[in-house]
Amino acid sequence: MERVHETETLTLQPLSLSDGEAVYEMLQGIGKNENGFHNQVKGISYDGFRAWLKQEYAYDHGIGMPDWMVPQTTYWLMADDIPVGCGRLRHELNDSLREGSGHIGYAIAEPYRGRGYGRRILALLMEEAWNLGIRQLQVSANTDNERSNRVIRANGGVLYRESNCKNFYYIDLKN
Question: Which domains does the chain have, with CATH numbers?
Fold first, then answer.
């Protein structure tokens, strides 16, 4: 499998109302609930994607959020100009997120897995967290998702809690 190339530029692009077919197609390569990452776009029409995009954009800007949500930003991992993954950075944690998830969720579309993009999207999301003033992140991964657990550990994750099906890590951003 081909790895991330040194000449390849990897960036995070915030979700935008102008996102189109390329993002829609990338999201079709991520399951509805894949290893704890929820993708509401999988299997819906392009018109449905456009409606979801408007709602997600509003949520990312604090508009019309349900009471259980916290402020977040949704990003696309771009390899040059090609979207290869999706990441969400929650700006804070509520009790539910603290107990069952964390600050960051990410997924790489099926055709791009195993190339090092998971490690890079997490590192880039950590930079964004630092810019928001977050100094300690909580990130979780399903216990049976060895790839994701390796990615988190490679980015400085320290296992602090285990449940039946999840590992919970802290990543200290102070260093």
Answer: 10-172 (3.40.630.30)
Instruction: Assign 35 a pLDDT band (cuts: 50, 70, 90).
Output: confident
- Residue range 69-90, pLDDT digits in tens: 899 999 999 999 999 999 999 9
Return the sign of the alpha-carbon dihedral for residues 145, 151, 153, 159. Answer: negative
pTM of the model: 0.92
Contacts 24+ apart (CB under 8 A), 124-133: 124/10, 124/11, 124/12, 124/75, 124/77, 124/87, 125/12, 125/75, 125/87, 125/89, 126/155, 126/171, 126/173, 128/12, 128/73, 128/75, 128/89, 129/89, 129/103, 129/104, 129/173, 130/173, 132/89, 132/91
